[in-house]
């Protein structure tokens, strides 16, 4: 390495083609956020008044791998020699890979989901990305979850999905594991975020102390930005109380790993089995921003440990649901961007672009990697990054069309040209 | 050969965080702000204290009435002149909360602290809760929170074990009411920021863009910059690092990338390694005084203190004042709080979960533990349970500050539960309560009717009268009418009083500010 101020190392490569939102766009977004009585809450109030046809599609589980998931370490392109050239320190040796084929292999920490891969319930798409990539976590997540490039739409895509599907109950769109809903759920459709089902209760409530009913009355006439979530909370308390009273033991001996991810997926399985009408569940699993110490594929290294937790949680989730339950569930992973192809000087990788998605469910045509592989040779890269040949929205759109009974995903992704991968069977 | 720098992974960033940039919006069309629940009945002083402090108390309302708005601002903008006995007592019990890097490391040497342990950072978090609740320097605390979000260094984070308390004391608090240019430069030369955003590992051999990008996007001009600006800024900032032996800031000329730079309108020859520090600080001075920075800071201050939809004319005036006064913050705050737009905004903000909890502590008159810190430490975890432990937002953009961002049903439920826990004294148990019972604290005489009971409590706790329908709902909680006679032995005035108090705090009247 011969560093000069104009060296060709990736961090110094000028990023071509990245569009960035201007100051005015950001300012408008900030300004619009808090309008008291804005459309969000008003829409929520009106949607609560509607009745809808019962939902008969898959429950879509959106697992957000926040921080920039390194798809190149998870679904390794061992058949591309440029991979090992770009990652002499952190490349996963071919001999350590599990599953896969002549081109790709899975990181050894994913061994717990190997039976699902071989059984065809788990697959992947590689070289996935956004149409207008950004290397800013915030801009990239904002656009990933707005999912409406080139339009002025401000809602999130899950919110639009719930709206298009006619969701009427907070338990039809649930963010599990956090008390804040993700950006993708922002908008008029009713939804709920909860840290856990069992923790969702109002202190003091009793037969002679109607706390919840009194709270509901106190919000009568309040601005909708206050009244709508309060009313939704009171409604949801009743459902949660029934679930808690019923108790829960995972089926088939499933053991979820300790931590937030395992607890959240356990609650998702519980909601699926309770048949509360869950259309979409959002779960966050962060901590993927591995600028340093992404490391080699051994326990104790960041990527190994994170993937290990992920694989154990997915395996437990699939086991808990059982084949029949998994037949009514599709889980996908998303991340705001992939990581730079070349490793950096800290045994990590900086923000990049193209990435891998994991697909899990009975309707997945799994055991293989979808997408056109653009190659990792330097001339094939975009500013040092894996090029994206598949728009992540096209993958979701296929799930919505084939698994969730939505004839026209255009209501969810207004600017998307359909491009099916045929990665899912029709329900 | 020296040992390696501990390369802890960047686990702090984006750790299971929910929405990024949560300030971004839902509504496609801006509706006019809805009328506040009780705006008409709030006095100007009450309005000021709901915004510029963590919530009015009988004592703070009385003081403000004596001083008037101008006198109150004068006093609060000169915080070192305000005696602060409770905060002093609290800090004496949390000796690492404001420790220097050397101080934290000395505790390790003395064997009272584990190396890389998070105790100092948790002490800082607990101290922050306690100061918000009980410091007499309330405006300073509110502004410290603002800057802690704007120049966010998540507390706790892996590499902050020895430097995060010092960042709070020597950077944020020292310059909170000073000049932003000084604050920005102090942050850029502090081991906490340099560790948090990776600049300590950025060298001329392998520049790391993380800090450079957030410096432009979050700390100063916003997203008007180009990728080339980020790349050049990252090169210029190489050499600003941390001495791994002492944990202190260090400029390492040997790792600084020389060569001319152009970042937005900032040009520098950057010809020598020895001059790299001055060249980098020159960039920070330039960015702090950029009109786009002035506008972003003015706008964020307005979102914090005026409205989720900041009045454009006020933003313009404050941005111009910020530039005219060479980035001084106190004049901008004074102009904000004395503006017509501020006066017209009563009730237009909704409390976030953290300020909701602190305002509850304050209006109930709960005090710092008689000894120890178990009670105030429990408040930290109570804030964490509703998603807003102080300083703990996992991303560099700081906690969101708008009603829409916190409008989750689950978040409201958490607040409501906190209200009852605090009113009943179930948790935390260690806080000093103002009287032997809630009845003794809030009802000097027991009112004659349920309606008068509600009025007495809402006057005292929220500062407003509730609408008739809501008075009726609260009386109805006990199966009564507002006109029903209240006997001194009734549960509503005794053992069941905490439930009534909690419901009043659960109401939209208390949720708005």
The top level CATH class name of the largest domain in chain A: Alpha Beta
**CATH level 3 topology of the largest domain in chain A:** Alkaline Phosphatase, subunit A
Secondary-structure-based class of chain A equals alpha/beta
SSE arrangement of chain B, N to C:
HHHHHHHHHHHEEEEHHHHHHHHHHHHH
Indicate the multimeric state.
heterodimer
Distance between the termini of chain A: 54 Å
- Give the integer mean of the pLDDT values of chain A: 85
Shape of chain B: globular
Largest interface: A-B, 116 and 107 residues
Rg estimate of chain B, integer Å? 24 Å
Individual helix count of chain B: 24
Mean pLDDT of chain B, to the nearest integer, reads: 91
Number of domains of chain B: 3
| CATH architecture annotation of the largest domain in chain A | 3-Layer(aba) Sandwich
Structural class of chain B: mainly alpha
Give the distance, in angstroms, between the N- and C-terminal Cα atoms of chain B: 58 Å
Shape of chain A: globular
Q: If you had to describe this structure to a student in words, what would you say it looks like?
A:
With 427 residues, chain A is of the alpha/beta class. Chain A folds into two domains: 58-197 and 251-411, Alkaline Phosphatase, subunit A (3-Layer(aba) Sandwich); 202-247. Helices cover 32% and strands 11% of the residues of chain A. Chain A is built from twelve helices and eleven strands. Chain B has 513 residues and is mainly α. Chain B folds into three domains: 1-178 and 370-399, no CATH class; 179-348, no CATH class; 438-511. Helices cover 50% and strands 2% of the residues of chain B. In chain B, strands 1-2 form a two-stranded antiparallel ribbon. In chain B, strands 3-4 form a two-stranded antiparallel sheet. Chains A and B meet through helix 1, helix 2, helix 6, strand 6 and helix 8 of A and helix 10, helix 11, helix 13, helix 19 and helix 22 of B. Chain A: Pfam families: DUF1501. Chain A: This is DUF1501 domain-containing protein. Chain A: It comes from Pilimelia terevasa.
């Amino acid at each position: 390495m011969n560093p000069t101020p104009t060296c060709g190392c990736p961090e110094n490569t000028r990023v071509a083609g990245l569009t960035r939102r201007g100051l005015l766009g950001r300012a408008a977004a900030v300004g619009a956020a808090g309008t008291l009585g804005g459309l969000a809450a008003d829409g929520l109030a009106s949607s609560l008044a509607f009745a809808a046809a019962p939902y008969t599609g898959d429950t879509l589980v959106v697992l957000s791998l926040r921080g920039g998931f390194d798809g190149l370490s998870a679904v390794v392109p061992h058949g591309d020699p440029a991979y090992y050239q770009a990652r002499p320190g952190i490349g996963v040796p071919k001999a350590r890979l599990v599953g896969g084929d002549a081109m790709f292999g899975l990181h050894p920490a994913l061994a717990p989901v190997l039976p699902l891969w071989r059984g065809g319930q788990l697959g992947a798409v590689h070289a996935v990305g956004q149409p207008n990539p950004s290397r800013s976590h915030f801009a990239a997540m904002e656009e990933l979850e707005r999912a409406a490039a080139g339009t002025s739409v401000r809602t999130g895509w899950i919110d639009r999905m719930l709206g298009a599907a006619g969701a009427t109950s907070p338990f039809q769109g649930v963010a599990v594991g956090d008390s804040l809903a993700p950006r993708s759920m922002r908008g008029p459709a009713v939804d709920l975020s909860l840290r856990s089902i069992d923790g969702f209760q109002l202190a003091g409530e009793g037969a002679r102390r109607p706390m919840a009913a009194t709270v509901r009355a106190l919000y009568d006439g309040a601005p909708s930005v206050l009244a709508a979530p309060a009313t939704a909370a009171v409604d949801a308390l009743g459902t949660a109380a029934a679930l808690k009273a019923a108790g829960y033991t995972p089926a088939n001996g499933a053991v979820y790993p300790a931590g937030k991810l395992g607890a959240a997926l356990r609650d998702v399985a519980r909601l699926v089995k309770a048949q509360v009408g869950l259309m979409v569940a959002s779960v966050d699993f962060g901590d993927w921003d591995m600028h340093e110490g992404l490391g080699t594929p051994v326990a104790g290294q960041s990527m190994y440990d994170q993937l290990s937790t992920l694989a154990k949680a997915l395996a437990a989730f699939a086991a808990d649901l059982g084949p029949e339950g998994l037949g009514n569930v599709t889980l996908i992973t998303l991340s705001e961007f992939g990581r730079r192809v070349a490793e950096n000087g800290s045994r990590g990788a900086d923000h990049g672009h193209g990435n891998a998605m994991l697909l899990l469910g009975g309707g997945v045509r799994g055991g293989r990697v979808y997408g056109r592989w653009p190659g990792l040779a330097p001339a094939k890269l975009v500013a040092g990054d894996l090029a994206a040949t598949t728009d992540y929205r096209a993958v979701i759109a296929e799930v919505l069309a084939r698994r969730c009974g939505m004839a026209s995903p255009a209501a969810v992704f207004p600017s998307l040209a359909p491009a099916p991968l045929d990665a899912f069977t029709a329900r | 050969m020296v040992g390696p720098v501990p390369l802890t992974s960047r686990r702090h960033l984006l750790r299971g965080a929910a929405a990024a940039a949560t300030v971004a919006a839902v509504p496609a069309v801006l509706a006019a702000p809805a009328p506040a629940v009780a705006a008409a009945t709030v006095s100007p002083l009450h309005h000021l204290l709901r915004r510029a402090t963590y919530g009015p108390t009988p004592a703070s309302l009385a003081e403000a009435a004596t001083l008037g708005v101008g006198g109150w601002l004068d006093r609060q903008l000169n915080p070192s002149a305000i005696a602060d006995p409770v905060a002093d007592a609290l800090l004496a019990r949390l000796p690492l909360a404001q420790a220097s890097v050397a101080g934290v490391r000395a505790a390790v040497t003395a064997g009272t602290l584990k190396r890389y342990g998070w105790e100092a950072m948790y002490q800082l978090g607990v101290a922050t809760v306690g100061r918000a609740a009980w410091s007499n320097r309330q405006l300073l605390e509110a502004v410290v929170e603002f800057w802690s979000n704007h120049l966010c260094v998540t507390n706790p984070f892996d590499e902050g074990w020895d430097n995060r308390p010092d960042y709070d004391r020597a950077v944020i608090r020292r310059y909170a009411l000073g000049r932003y240019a000084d604050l920005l430069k102090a942050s850029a030369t502090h081991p906490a920021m340099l560790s948090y955003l990776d600049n300590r590992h950025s060298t001329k051999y392998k520049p790391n863009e993380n800090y450079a990008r957030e410096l432009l996007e979050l700390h100063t001009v916003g997203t008007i910059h180009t990728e080339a600006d980020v790349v050049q800024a990252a090169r210029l900032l190489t050499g600003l690092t941390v001495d791994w032996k002492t944990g202190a800031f260090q400029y390492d000329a040997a790792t600084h990338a020389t060569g001319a730079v152009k970042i937005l309108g900032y040009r520098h020859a950057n010809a020598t390694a020895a001059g790299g520090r001055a060249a980098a600080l020159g960039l920070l001075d330039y960015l702090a005084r950029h009109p786009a920075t002035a506008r972003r800071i003015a706008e964020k201050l307005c979102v914090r203190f005026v409205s989720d939809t900041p009045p454009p004319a006020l933003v313009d005036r404050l941005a111009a004042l910020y530039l005219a006064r060479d980035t001084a913050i106190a004049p901008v705050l004074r102009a904000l709080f004395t503006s017509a737009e501020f006066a017209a905004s009563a009730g237009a903000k909704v409390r976030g979960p953290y300020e909701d909890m602190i305002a509850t502590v304050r209006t109930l008159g709960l005090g710092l533990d008689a000894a120890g810190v178990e009670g105030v430490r429990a408040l930290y975890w109570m804030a964490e349970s509703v998603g807003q432990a102080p300083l703990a937002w996992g991303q560099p953009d700081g906690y969101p500050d708008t009603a829409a961002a916190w409008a989750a049903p689950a978040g409201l439920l958490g607040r409501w539960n906190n209200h009852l826990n605090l009113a009943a004294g179930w948790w935390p148990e260690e806080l000093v309560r103002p009287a032997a019972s809630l009845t003794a604290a809030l009802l000097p005489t027991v009112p004659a009717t349920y309606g008068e009971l509600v009025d007495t409590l809402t006057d005292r706790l929220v500062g407003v009268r509730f609408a008739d329908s809501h008075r009726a709902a609260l009386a109805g909680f006990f199966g009564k009418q507002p006109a029903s006679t209240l006997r001194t032995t009734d549960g509503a005035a005794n053992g069941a009083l905490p439930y009534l108090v909690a419901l009043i705090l659960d109401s939209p009247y208390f949720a708005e500010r």
